[in-house]
Amino acid sequence: RVLFRSFGVGSESDDSTIASHLARGTSSPWLNMAGRAFTSMQEYLLFAVYQSRIPTIDTVVLLSGFNNLFLAQRALPFTPPLGSFFYQQAFEAGMEMFTKNRRARLRATLFGRSLTVPTQQRSISEAIRLAVELTHQSLQLWDFAAKARGFRLVFALQPTAHWSARSPHPNEATLFSLLRNIDPALTATLERLDDSCYSEYRERLAHVCQNFGITFLDINTHLRTTNKQDEWWHVDRVHYTGIGNERISDAVSCLLKISTMRILVAAAVVFIAGIGVVALRKRAKPKAESDTYPMW
Cα–Cα distance between 207 and 8 in angstroms, integer? Predict the structure, then answer.
């Protein structure tokens, strides 16, 4: 089983990642193929590079969704199929430096180039549209891979403190306050992605998954019902501690079981309905002439 976006940031050790908690909870191996700050397309490219080294895959869980939306609402160039990505300005600056002449490169090396974060932001509706479009393109590639390799594909919308309606632990409240003072612009950006944004984004992602026949899970919904204020879950509003990762793994495991049961029930209903159709057809079949008119 393969898990993407397993949130290494905030984990105290390899044993406290979501993949490690899932492996212990399900008694099955889970491979963490997350990449720091990856978008959905970068996640797929990572899998495409290494998937030949994984002989058998039962399930792939894409615990993802936030980075696409966060980047889409920043005023950075957003060109499908890759969209925007973290450290994009540093990458563009480096490429630009190597295309300059020697004197210009020396000047850039000595004096540098300002890599300010864009202050302008796209509207939330436009950001959702772009993020869903990018997710759709990556899920199309994932769907091809799932059908070719024969594994189950699951998209799990990753949780955040806002979207899961987190009642913060005292340590979390302290950290949130410090982060607000250190980077008020980032805090304001995160707060733009509020409940109304989350609801629309969630529904549109669920619709995309439904069109592909991909199982859709929302971890936020589950965490809202298990919100334990006496546990320290967050290191910031997006990343989790080892305990927070354990709660996310519990949610993934629980929701996977529920979705599997629904699939089995649906299959049983179809099977029973099929038996009923066959029985009705047999009952409706006209009797042979020899049965209707016995020969004396």
Answer: 29
